[in-house]
Specification:
manganese (chains A, B); oxidoreductase (chains A, B); IsoPropMal-DH-like_dom (chains A, B); homodimer; two-stranded antiparallel ribbon; binds 3-isopropylmalic acid; 2 domains; 10-stranded mixed beta sheet; 368 residues; alpha/beta; cytoplasm (chains A, B)
């Protein structure tokens, strides 16, 4: 039987608890599909800093490279917040593995689960039918450009004396825009055939390059897809005003960071959203929400986003669309039957339907 | 009697129509307060390009500098959208006057009018009591840093050959952060004594500088103000999740562009929001919404944001707080009595309460 090797990165906070449920579901899928999944843990983030001094030890990157897919949980926590600018930070592990594996495409699907529509702060008629995906460029732009800090007279302005100055560089190369545009149009082909490309063309040179290249790729390779341009500030408005109108939204790294979190919040159930980071080699899958250190170790964290990230892995890493649908449908039916973790429960949830992390994992396996 | 000289910039689209109502209200206030306001029009944006070839003719900048305050409407429209990257663009007029007058502080108040709460796509209980102000840094960051485009092998990546590359620079100097932080804390003192400073410290060097300097200014000069830090992606979420919790939100130029539009959209009535751009000399006041070329010339545009920008001018440029309150209260009572322009009318508005642009201006004057 076929064997896939997964590099699992439990990370920090609730990470180890929820990734256990992801593995549980994966094993159940494997059993039913007659496929073997082997999971091997490696260190990342704060846990890696504690053990090795580095948020991304070489051994982790090597293990990830040698695997068939990476399942990440989440990193970070107050323990590693430091005022020392040179102290290693857990997020560097995340940025490092994105760059190290060349994961230039981040897919963040945002979907309303009917059973959870009440959790949104938006009116039900506005969020009804929301089903979009943010395609975020993940290895370019302000995140990876040159940055520096120094002291000189300019930094102080007319105050005299010396002051600090800092800069970051937002850089894009034509091929970087080309390949992410292609991913967006390909995603649209499997969905509703519409792409919204987001930029700030009226100000930024990188945005003008972005818009030109996205249109060239469209005209040459995907003329049948509907393409619209939207300025980033207007997009921030329209995501609130008419979220159901969006299908695929493609944008550069920093805009994507902001807009994907905004879009996620529209659902009101962050604990349900997963993301895939893809390149031309090994891919990585993770929940969208953070490491929630405040509830770590209590067995109450919501594992569903992690479980849904397993579904994304089945689709994108192994082409197992049918098995991915088992997981997605399983989660949907668990919700439809009223099972909740604490974060997605509300006044109408009977106490005996509020499950802990592990019980929720078991429930999904039961419904598979 | 005292005389104030206003440089008025009608701009494009609905600009000339709505600025006429702003002037109307201003004259009514002057009459009642025993103050003379003289308004002199100058060219900006597309109108200036058509007349002179430049979106910000020297004469306009000189007139603005020589005035006591600038009242701007809005610029831009499809007429000046060009695929030629060297063609002058209306927004350059806006960016040029901000830089030319040194308008480094942009105040964008976001407030729910009870009478219009139904226009929001957010649930009524979530937007109830929203009353925040975004303090956006307006002359630094990605907007005014060095940018370039060129061709080289790197631009093409492994495709071989040559490709394009572009970059923009996000730069901040210590004194630039200092002065905007001070404006934010001063604003908080007149409000609910709380400042949220927004950055992306886990990635950007400019954000790390930002956070340090904001805290230094806080600790040295405003220790009594409550200060919290929030990452920009998290802020994009919390503005939807708990908008009523925010008081003053201070951030750099690009984040401020995105977040202020997001916050504006939360109200659902963009046509009601005005902004003030302040520096150490002449200040500028304008509605937050755009030039709406699609409805220009029809006499149906909503002039209330322009009228409210006049109220901001009375406060910030002339220290006429009492007279500003006349205008604000007037607008509020007009709404409470059910008067609407088309954009803020709904099914429950009787047809004879839907007013055109000029009739709405008259109505506010009547209620002053
Ligand atoms: C932790 C941080 C560096 C990261 C990012 O900004 O990309 C996170 O916000 C995300 O969106 O995955
Ligand atoms: C027109 C554009 C350059 C401008 C900006 O980005 O600052 C506008 O969006 C605004 O917010 O005033």
């Amino acid at each position: 039987s076929k064997t896939y090797r997964i590099c699992t990165l439990p990370g920090d906070g609730i990470g180890p608890e929820i990734i256990a449920e992801g593995k549980k579901v994966l094993q159940a899928v494997g059993k039913r599909a007659g496929v073997t999944f082997t999971c091997t843990d490696a260190l990342i983030g704060g846990a890696a800093i504690d053990a090795t001094g580095s948020p991304l030890p070489d051994a982790t990157l090597e293990a990830a490279r040698a695997s068939d897919a990476v399942l990440l949980s989440s990193v970070g926590g107050p323990k590693w917040d430091s005022t020392d600018p040179n102290a290693p930070r857990p997020e560097q592990g995340l940025l490092g593995i994105r760059k190290g594996l060349g994961l230039y495409t981040n897919l963040r699907p945002v979907k309303i689960y009917d059973a959870l529509a009440g959790a949104s702060t938006l009116r039900p008629e506005v969020i009804k039918g929301v089903d979009l995906v943010i395609v975020r460029e993940l290895t370019g732009g302000l995140y990876f450009g040159k940055r520096e800090r120094f002291y000189d007279e300019e930094g102080a302005g007319s105050n005299g004396g010396r002051g600090q100055r800092a800069y970051d560089t937002c850089e894009y190369r034509e091929y970087e825009v080309e390949r992410i545009a292609r991913k967006a149009f390909q995603a649209a082909r499997k969905r509703r055939n519409k792409v919204t490309s987001v930029d700030k063309r009226n100000v930024l040179e990188t945005s003008r390059l972005w818009r030109e290249v996205v249109h060239r790729v469209h005209d040459e390779e995907f003329p049948e897809i509907e393409l619209e341009d939207l300025l980033v500030d207007n997009t921030a408005m329209q995501l609130i005003n008419r979220p159901a109108d969006f299908d695929v939204v493609v944008t550069e790294n920093m805009f994507g960071d902001i807009l994907s979190d905004e879009a996620a919040q529209i659902t009101g159930s962050l604990g349900m959203l997963a993301s895939a980071s893809l390149g031309d080699g090994v891919s990585l899958f993770e929940p969208s929400a953070g490491s929630a250190p405040d509830i770590a170790g209590q067995g109450i964290a919501n594992p569903l986003a992690q479980i849904l990230s397993v579904a994304m892995m089945l689709t994108y890493a192994f082409g197992m669309d049918e098995q991915a649908a088992w997981v997605q449908d399983g989660v949907e039916r668990v919700l439809d039957d009223g099972w909740r973790t604490r974060d997605i429960a509300d006044g109408s949830t009977p106490a005996d339907h509020v499950l802990g992390t592990s019980a929720m994992g078991d429930k999904v396996v039961e419904y598979l």
